[in-house]
């Protein structure tokens, strides 16, 4: 029985509710009157239910689809302005006891090189990341209680936060590790993590069990209820995601939104982010084996419909996607992207020989962080290295209320400009720096409050004179 408040995965991700929603969407996909009503509701910027959003996703009316894309772009501008937050993944260990059939880290893969970073190696990786200009990381690790126990992850987090190389600092560590216990989530919270990220992979239980035939990840309920345990452990910024290509995208879309509705209903706070990875080629993995791959048009529509359904939730696109694809979907609601990423263990310090790869998947966007920063600015976006919210305690519902209050322009906007300025001073190439300086000059006037604008101007001057780490 469907119940978004329930703490049982079968009830908040109810299979028949998804099937009925998809049937309803199919029956109404070209119902112009209903679509207009849904779009009118989306314009209120309070979000849509999974059923309403499913209709928009299925709609094939050209004019309505154009409205969907235009509204997604507008909502993104209203809530996130033209800022794009940058981060990089850091792979700690690819030891894994699971059997995920789409992932090259699966336990039976004998020809991938298995690696686990020592604290000394982490230090070197972090220095390399700081020297690129990164301030925010997403930690990645396989699931292996012997090789990568929670104590190892906690030690890595401590090491990462402790490294201060030149003007560098990692100010926010997000964590993407396997579902774990409330006690371990509490430990992660105490270690000062930002967002806890866990991709559902697929919401379709039967497929999930086949795609995860062995290992602890096989347990659908334990995996699907992980965010509830994370919330219970005090982590109120959680990041959802689906690995698109494994199951029918319409099913996943409804499941993803139901998961968001569940978090809102049960804990009063929706997901902090949603990631939309698509399956990629990797050692031992041929993405063509999975017959639910989605084309770029469908992918763009998915991003736009997620934006309309959950306007306050950040959306993340990784370097799994190409420059061209990122350039397209960034308009429709993406708020964070990774840049300069390596998906191998130790890959920031030492590029690996092909035959000894520990990579998780092929990266499509291989540009450097400097190139990505310049490209964003040339496309009228402000690259942001801001990590202020969580450091100021604005997590969970406090972040959401900042979003809803419309005060983001007096807070996130100056923070983005100040952290961009740091990047330009410390890491940018001369041509990126010159594009950036003009952008800051043009954008500083868009801070509405006089007092905030003046403080930001003073801080920009201070950064030029060598000071760092200002925030609102
Ligand atoms: N081991 C953790 C877990 O089980 O959730 C998370 C870390 S894993 C390194 C991060 C994510 O990479 C997975 O959740 C999966 O969605 C994604 N992934 C795995 N194989 C992939 C592939 N071939 N292409 C694209 N993404 C992949």
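^ structure tokens above, recovered residues below v
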């Amino acid at each position: 029985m469907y119940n978004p408040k329930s703490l049982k995965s079968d009830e908040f991700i109810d299979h028949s509710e998804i099937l009925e929603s998809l049937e309803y969407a199919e029956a109404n996909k070209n119902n112009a009157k209903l679509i207009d009503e849904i779009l009118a509701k989306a314009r209120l910027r309070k979000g849509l239910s999974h059923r309403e959003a499913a209709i928009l996703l299925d709609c094939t009316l050209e004019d309505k689809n154009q409205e969907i894309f235009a509204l997604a772009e507008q909502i993104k501008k209203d809530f996130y302005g033209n800022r794009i937050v940058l981060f990089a993944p850091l792979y700690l260990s690819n030891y894994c006891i699971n059997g995920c059939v789409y992932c090259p880290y699966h336990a039976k893969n004998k020809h991938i090189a298995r690696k686990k970073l020592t604290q000394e190696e982490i230090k070197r990786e972090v220095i390399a990341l700081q020297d690129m200009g990164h301030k925010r990381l997403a930690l990645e690790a396989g699931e292996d209680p012997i090789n990568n126990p929670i104590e190892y992850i906690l030690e890595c987090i401590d090491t990462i936060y402790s490294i201060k190389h030149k003007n560098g600092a990692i100010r926010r560590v997000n964590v993407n590790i396997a579902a774990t216990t409330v006690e371990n989530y509490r430990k992660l919270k105490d270690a000062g993590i930002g967002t806890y990220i866990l991709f559902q992979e697929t919401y379709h239980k039967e497929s999930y069990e086949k795609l995860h035939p062995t290992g602890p990840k096989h347990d659908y309920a334990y995996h699907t209820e992980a965010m509830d345990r994370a919330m219970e452990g005090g982590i109120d910024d959680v990041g959802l995601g689906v690995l698109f290509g494994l199951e029918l995208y319409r099913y996943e879309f409804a499941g993803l939104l139901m998961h968001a509705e569940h978090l809102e209903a049960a804990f009063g706070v929706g997901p902090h982010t949603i990631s939309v990875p698509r399956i990629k080629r990797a050692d031992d993995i041929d993405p063509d084996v999975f017959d639910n791959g989605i084309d770029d048009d469908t992918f763009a529509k998915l991003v736009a419909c997620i934006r309309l359904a959950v306007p306050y939730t950040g959306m993340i696109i990784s370097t799994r996607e190409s420059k061209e694809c990122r350039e397209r979907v960034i308009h429709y609601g993406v708020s964070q992207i990774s840049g300069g990423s390596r998906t191998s263990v130790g890959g920031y310090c030492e590029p690996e020989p092909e035959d000894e790869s520990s990579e998780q998947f092929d990266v499509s966007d291989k540009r450097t962080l400097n190139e990505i920063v310049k490209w964003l600015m040339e496309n009228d976006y402000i690259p942001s290295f801001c990590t202020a919210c969580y450091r100021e305690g604005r997590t969970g519902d406090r972040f959401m209320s900042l979003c809803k209050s419309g005060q983001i322009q007096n807070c996130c906007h100056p923070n983005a400009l100040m952290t961009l300025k740091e990047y330009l001073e410390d890491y940018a190439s001369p041509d990126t720096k010159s594009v950036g300086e003009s952008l800051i000059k043009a954008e500083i006037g868009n801070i509405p409050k006089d007092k905030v604008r003046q403080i930001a101007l003073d801080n920009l001057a201070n950064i030029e004179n060598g000071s760092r780490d200002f925030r609102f």
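Residues 388-464 form one domain.
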